[in-house]
Automatic annotation (TrEMBL):
CDD domains: Ig. The chain crosses the membrane at residues 241-265. Its main location: membrane. The keyword Membrane applies. Keywords: Immunoglobulin domain, Membrane, Signal, Transmembrane, Transmembrane helix. Residues 11-114, 115-221 form the Ig-like domain. It is found in: Membrane. This is Immunoglobulin superfamily member 5. Residues 1-24 form the signal peptide. One of its GO terms (biological process) is cell-cell adhesion. It comes from the Eukaryota. It comes from Zonotrichia albicollis (White-throated sparrow).
């Protein structure tokens, strides 16, 4: 491609230079150094005095664009274009490089086929990578020293890292930055900030390269908690109380289980005791009942018509003594006395009472 561009541009350069022999013109203002981000455009200006015939732009030593005073710009690729300006007797050609890449860094030259100074500049293409702080919010305790790590990956060149706290720059002695090579010519950086916060604050990590209009940043909010220590002890106390409560509840559970077992056993024993007592009472009642029946069968019912033999003999003897004397049938006829038999006397019995089968006494008097 470059050889093709040279083959096209060389005849044009020779053609433009022949009529210009003997004429004096020069570059009044050459291109200036430019630093751009990869993917953006890079612009270079070259201003020449009146009478110029040809301007040739060279990129890293190879011609990429030609401007003829008679024909204008001759562009051979879309990546390199130009814009032209005229001011009085001067003419300005602007070279525009599109979609710059890291490999485009190098020398840019403006040539008018005349010896001149200040006809070249340098292009620097830089890459801004990623920047991050792992934790976006942190809660810190009183007198707690913490480390905040800021990581920059895929930069070219390696960025300059700085820290700010509440819009004030942090002293460089408070942080350490380490750089390391990455892939494809890129660089990484790791910055560690060590501090002991005294209040809630916002920490900002800044990564800067020349091509950036302003530093790239990442922030973290430090929340200063005075009650963090109290919460720490509170959590410990809570854990202790939980353990104590668990032990107490376990003990109470065991005690309750023992009480339930004891109550159940006592209930069973009481139930058995009452059953035994009922049986004893039942047996005792049956024995009393049998004993009463046996007594009734043994003694029988009371015989109200019974008169003891002693009393009966006494009364009978007194009755006999009161009788008149007995005389012989030979005593005389005038005696009207006659002897009659005494009727048999039986004791009165009440039909309501049964007679004892064991004691039956009958008394007969003659």
């Amino acid at each position: 491609m470059e050889s093709f561009q040279k083959c096209i541009l060389l005849p044009l350069i020779l053609t433009a230079s022949l009529p210009g022999l003997g004429f004096c013109y020069s570059i009044t203002k050459g291109p200036e150094n430019a630093t751009v981000l990869a993917g953006s455009e890079a612009r270079f200006n070259c201003t020449v005095s009146a009478g110029w015939k040809v301007i040739i732009w060279l990129f890293q030593g190879s011609p990429v664009l030609t401007v003829l005073s008679s024909q204008g710009s001759v562009e051979t690729t879309e990546r390199f274009t130009s814009r032209n300006y005229s001011t009085g007797d001067e003419f300005t050609s602007e070279l525009i490089i599109h979609n710059t890449q890291l490999s485009d860094s190098g020398r840019i030259e403006c040539s008018i086929q005349q010896p001149s100074q200040n006809n070249f500049a340098f292009l620097s293409v830089q890459v801004n990578g990623s920047l991050l702080i792992k934790n976006s919010t942190l809660t810190v305790k009183d007198n707690q020293t913490i480390e905040i790590v800021c990581e920059a990956l895929g930069w070219a060149p390696a960025p300059d890292i700085a820290w700010m706290t509440n819009d004030s720059l942090v002293d460089k002695s408070s942080y350490v930055t380490q750089q390391s090579p990455g892939s494809h010519g890129l660089h990484n950086a790791l910055s560690t900030l060590t501090l002991t916060p005294r209040d809630t604050e916002v920490l900002t990590c800044l990564a800067d390269i020349e091509a950036l209009p302003s530093p790239q940043n990442a922030s973290v909010t430090l929340i200063f908690d005075n009650s963090a220590t109290e919460n720490y002890y509170s959590e410990d106390n809570t854990s202790t109380w939980v353990i104590v409560l668990a032990v107490v509840l376990s003990f109470l559970g065991i005690v309750l289980l023992v009480v339930i077992v004891v109550v159940a056993v006592r209930c069973c024993l009481k139930r058995r005791g009452s059953t035994y007592q009922n049986e004893i009472r039942k047996v005792s009642a049956e024995k009393k009942k049998e004993g009463g029946l046996e007594d009734r069968q043994r003694s029988g019912s009371e015989n109200l018509g019974y008169i003891p033999e002693e009393l009966w003999n006494t009364e009978h003897s007194s009755g006999l003594s009161s009788l008149p004397p007995v005389f012989s049938k030979f005593a005389g006829p005038d005696d009207n006395l006659h002897i009659s038999s005494v009727p048999k006397v039986r004791p009165q019995r009440r039909p309501d009472y049964p007679i004892s089968p064991k004691k039956i006494r009958n008394v007969t008097l003659v």
